[in-house]
Design goal:
One of its GO terms (molecular function) is (S)-3-amino-2-methylpropionate transaminase activity. Its EC number is 2.6.1.19, 2.6.1.22. The protein has 450 residues and is α/β, with parallel strands linked by helices. The protein has helices at residues 17-29, 63-66, 75-85, 99-111, 127-142, 159-164, 198-215, 241-254, 276-280, 308-311, 327-342, 345-366, 395-407, 432-449, and strands at 42-46, 49-52, 57-60, 119-124, 146-150, 181-184, 222-227, 230-231, 237-238, 257-262, 288-291, 302-307, 370-376, 379-387, 392-393, 410-411, 413-415, 421-424. The chain has 2 domains: 2-60 and 344-449, Aspartate Aminotransferase, domain 1; 79-342, 3-Layer(aba) Sandwich (Aspartate Aminotransferase, domain 2). Helices cover 38% and strands 18% of the residues. The mean pLDDT is 97.
Length: 450
């Protein structure tokens, strides 16, 4: 079975002839702005493995960018979706109630670590929609117009979430943008100015929030502070717990809601079902959590969860939509949660992460182009630099490594403000032999490209 195979390239180069023909058709039919740097045309996927149309087999460390924590084509999820499809595909939740939506909301209310005892959840279709809806809910509850986001943030490609996103390559030429979105500095400890201690750095980054109050929006006009527990596109940078505690304190003092964007960090990726469980352990859990990506094994659905008093502040007609909480996606999500809890996939993520970080740490002593290694669970970033003293980013090397790895059967992806980070997002069902094989290919690519 493909899910148990190891990488195998059988064509003279990648892409092979069949894949090349489809890629050429893509270039004629699809806008170039929807970029793809990978020479892979998928034929089928199982577990952590992909087979292309030419018969080449790849280990996938990207997983549809964090969507496939449970892997490709999990048979129990296929069965759950098939069973639902034979009843009905769609029933707009504003028109007819379907039990799958209700059951999934109940399940999310039970497992999502937001503040409060009574919780409510509603569904959208994508991570960007979830983040935008969370902001709408926060504004409805607080009656305030503004929000604070952070450097390095990525929240989506809608007009509001493009504005919230830090990297303006994602919004080039698409303005003007909505008002009321202000930016503080995220604690990117590897690149803290000067030579601060971690404690001093936490104070420095916390102070940047107060500067927003002073220079951009008084605190009493801020509805929410939106944080990724571990930045994704920004470079796989974890939010330090002491900083999270400081942000939670600011929110409590100023009447601001804390929103955790768990679109990429949710569903066992970080060694917990949700990364905000690390916050909960120090009594700093958020008021609203957004989730998406791995919630339904690839079917489009996202969730917004908050305590009842927040949710019930929203006026009728301002949230929801035609496809939100689609029955097929709800069936998949319910089965995903069941499997993840039953199979302890949070623990498996922690095991994978330890093995990967141990290996990355060995490389750091061998290759002087590795500047930083960081992450939570099986969400890990490795940052490449031209000089470990100056920390000058090395995006050219990362691009070469990504390409070289693909030629040898490993799909990896870059990230980071400077494009100099490689992210680890392998499906959590990856086997030990596949993990070892991927690490070997990755190291050989580094050694070849430096």
């Amino acid at each position: 079975m493909l899910k148990n195979e190891l990488p195998k390239i059988i064509t003279a180069q990648v892409p092979g002839p069949k894949a090349q023909a489809i890629i050429e058709r893509r270039e004629k039919a699809v806008p170039a702005a929807i970029k793809c740097v990978y020479p892979v045309v998928i034929e089928k996927g199982e577990g952590a493995m992909v087979e292309d149309v030419d018969g080449n087999q790849f280990i996938d460390w990207v997983g549809g960018v964090g969507v496939l924590n449970i892997g490709y084509s999990h048979p129990e999820i296929v069965a759950a979706v098939k069973d639902q499809s034979e009843k009905y595909f769609h029933g707009m939740f504003n028109i007819v109630t379907h039990e799958g939506y209700v059951e999934l909301a109940e399940k999310m209310n039970a497992i999502v670590p937001v503040k409060g005892n009574e919780k409510m959840t509603f569904f959208a279709n994508s991570g960007a929609e979830a983040d935008e809806n969370a902001v709408k809910v926060a504004k409805a509850f607080t009656k305030r117009p503004n929000i604070i986001v952070f450097s390095g943030a990525f929240h989506g490609r809608t007009m509001l979430t493009m504005t919230m996103t830090s990297k303006k390559a994602y919004a080039y030429g698409l303005g003007p943008f909505p008002d009321g979105v202000y930016r503080a500095q995220f604690p990117y400890l590897y690149r803290t100015p000067g030579e601060m201690t971690e404690s001093a750095a936490i104070d420095y980054y916390t102070e940047s929030i107060y500067k927003v109050f002073e220079e951009c929006s008084p605190a009493e006009y801020v509805a929410a502070i939106v944080v990724e527990p571990l930045q994704g596109e920004g470079g796989f940078i974890p939010a330090p717990i002491e900083w999270v505690k400081a942000v939670r304190k600011i929110c409590d003092e100023k009447g601001i809601l804390l929103i955790a964007d768990e679109v990429q960090t949710g569903f066992c990726r970080t060694g917990k079902m949700f990364a905000s469980e690390y916050w909960q352990a120090v009594d700093a859990q958020p008021d609203i959590i957004t989730s998406a990506k791995s919630i339904a094994a690839g079917l489009p659905i996202s969730a917004i969860t908050a305590r009842k008093e927040i949710m019930e502040s929203v006026k009728g007609g301002t949230i929801g939509g035609t496809f939100c909480g689609n029955p097929l996606a709800c069936a998949a999500a319910l089965k995903v949660i069941e499997i993840m809890q039953r199979d302890h996939m949070d623990e498996r993520a922690a095991e994978i992460g330890k093995k990967v970080i141990d290996r990355f740490n060995q490389w750091q002593t061998k290759y002087d182009v590795i500047g930083d290694i960081r992450g939570l669970g099986a969400m890990i970033g490795i940052e490449f630099v031209k000089d470990t003293s100056t920390k000058e980013p090395y995006p050219e090397l990362v691009a070469a490594v990504v390409n070289e790895a693909a030629q040898n059967g490993l799909i990896i992806e870059s990230a980071g403000v400077y494009g100099n980070v490689i992210r680890f997002l392998a499906p959590l069902v990856i086997t030990e032999t596949q993990l070892d094989a991927g690490l070997d290919i990755f190291e050989k690519a580094i050694a070849k490209c430096i």
